[in-house]
Amino acid sequence: MCGLIGLAIQWGAIGDVGVLFDLVATNDTVIAGTLPQRMISCLATLDQFLRQPHAIVSSFVPAQVTRGVTGTTSTASPRDAVARIIGE
Asked: pLDDT tier at 14 (50, 70, 90 boundaries)?
């Protein structure tokens, strides 16, 4: 280790641009329990990330999911969403 400062950002799906947006052309598509994060939100989040001391950070928008036959809704936990994204 050279003692240099670094930051690893684990982005979720990003909307508005890229292959995902070209394929589905909507920001409402649920991907592994998350929604695509809008570019303006990514830039605002990046500004926050650059001001904090952590070396690894994550940014994603959890989707609201429906479970069971009763129609109750709940929000997926951030930990579960990240685990699904990385295949755990």
From this structure: confident
Within 10 angstroms of residue 42's Cβ, the number of other Cβ atoms is 19
Give CA–CA dist 72/44, Å, rounded: 32
Cα(10)–Cα(80) distance, integer angstroms: 14
CA 11 to chain centre: 5
What is the rounded (10 degree) CA torsion for 30, 63, 79, 3?
A: 80
Q: Does the pTM exceed 0.70?
A: no
Maximum CA extent, the chain: 56
- 3 state SS of 24: helix
DSSP one-letter code for 69: T
